[in-house]
Amino acid sequence: MQARTAARSRPAVWLGSAAALVIGLPILLWGVLTKTTPELQWFVALCDGVAFVCMVVVALLGSLDAELRQNWRSLPIVFVACSTAVMWAGHFAVFPGDVPALSGQRFNQATSTLFLTINLLMPLMLSVALLQRGGALARPRAFIVGAVTAGVLLGLLVIAVSVAVGPNLQTVSPAGEFLEFDAPVGVAGLILGLLGLLAYSVGLHGDERIAGGVLGALTFTALNSISLLYLHARYTPSWYADHVLALLPFAALLAGQLWLYSASVLAERSAASAVAMASERRRIGLDIAKAMARETDPMPVVDRLLNGVIDALTADRVTMLRLVPEGFVVEHSVDRQGRSANVGVVLSLDSVVAGKRKVVSEAVERQRPIVLGSYRVIGLDSDAEEGHAGILRSVVMPLVRGGTVDGVLIVGRRTHRPFTEADVDQLAELGAIAALVIRNSRLLADAESSSRAKSNFINLAAHEFGTPIAVIRGYVDMIADETLGRLTSEQRGPMDAIRATAADLAERVDQLLIASRLEAGVSPQAVDSDATADLGVVVREAVVRAKDRAALIGAAIEISIPAVPVVAEGSARDIGIIVDNLLNNAMTYSRGPAQVSVKVAGGESPEIRVSDQGIGIPEAAKERIFDQFYRVDDVDFGYPAGTGLGLYIGRRLAERHGGQLLLERSSPDAGSVFTLRLRRPNA
User: Cα-flanking dihedrals φ and ψ of residue 235, to 5°?
Assistant: First the structure.
């Protein structure tokens, strides 16, 4: 995969070299073919200034890239930029007429020597920079300072050598005529530039992301070296062309760094956008999952799902199809314009077509989404209709769970705005949740029609979930207890929430298992007719188990226990389960902070009384609350998570020990009082 990516990127990188040829070749030809030009005294100062500014900006951008990426891929360019910036500043200083104090034949020779040295060093440094591969930097600032310092020192050294050695080389006459020394420098520079280009073409290079500007700069240096072969005197066409070609490599490096910087910014924005979209998809998915988790009737589940899809994908119509042996049945549909759907109609899988494609049949067979334009439904739409229900863009998404397709979602828009890959990903996540919850909801609805089937299903689910939940809780406890390493203060809060959620999940699985066994006529543990329990001890232990959740939600639990033991018939474990459920319900159905009171009383019928100041129970629901899966609906209070099994389990366990679990008193917004009444042990 990486090889294919590199192969695709190389032609784009060579665009820098191609652009250099398009720009530089005409300049070279103009300098060679043109005979005369006016003398422009300001020309050298302008070229030197532009080159200096370009290199300062290149050094800043390269340093910024190294700092942000913590990678030294741009440090060779920083070194080249700093050294050449100093050299060009020196060239400006010693050029005849720019600085009056630095005049005379000594500085005239130094100017020419420095110019030739820059033209010789530039392709050498660029070729070396092109070969360097990036790597991680532990302390990028220190390396940046090092690259800048080394570049400045090299530039100063070249200036010093040019001033000291230049007068001895005799490269230019007092009249500004160049001697034959520039031709060998031009040939050497041309060879170095061509070697750098050749090395890159055969794969001897480092990071391609900096190569675009470097290849363009190398091409300009090669053209500049050729122009040196035609250089004879100052203020001639070839001299002007040579200075422009000597300047352009720095412009190419600047363009390369700007491209690199803009690409990095775009990549960061794209990554941030992708993260935000993914976060939003998961948030929507979790919201829908939480809403669906409160329902056991499949139709409200489907309705919530389809409305969530409409909002999440800014769609206009969503239709759910349920697969049946004959094909599919239109289960439900939501439409922004209120257009009706043929709910309940059974059609063939081949009836939904887009052109010659049988899109539903294809999606079910491939178990993958299909993005298309409009579609028709044979048997519902006429041949003259262009699209079903005015839909112009659509996605057909199979709902797959465990390798089996349970249904199909068809999402459509009445505009020409296409569905993007992000839309399909979001729909896939929502579809996965829908497939799971819809299947579970239907299984549960089917199970409720048969007590035996229901018990078997719950028992199987509890057993299947029990082992992985135990493993999860074990590892979560090890992490929370810092057995596997210390947690930061930022990690402690989420970890406590995960630990509490895992414990809550385990408790629900236990309730499912207990309910299943009770339904099958099997006690969670064998009933011992001689078993007794100290109710005070049972209550204290239950309060200890509830303290973590109480602390999390700010609930207060008060207990009142006689000084003498209150003993009752029954298993301490079973009575503890009953008290656990009563405490949990009292905290769950109270407007925070919950105030819960537990009182133990002796006498002929020992009892435990649990009181709260919660939302209370309506009169019509007072008996139904002890039924399996029944939950009190209160729109204003909301729909807390739960199984609807706690009171059912509590009453059945109390009855197995000859006791009673009663709702003694309750009214809306005035709280409830539950009493567990047990038998006194025989003397």
Answer: 60, 30
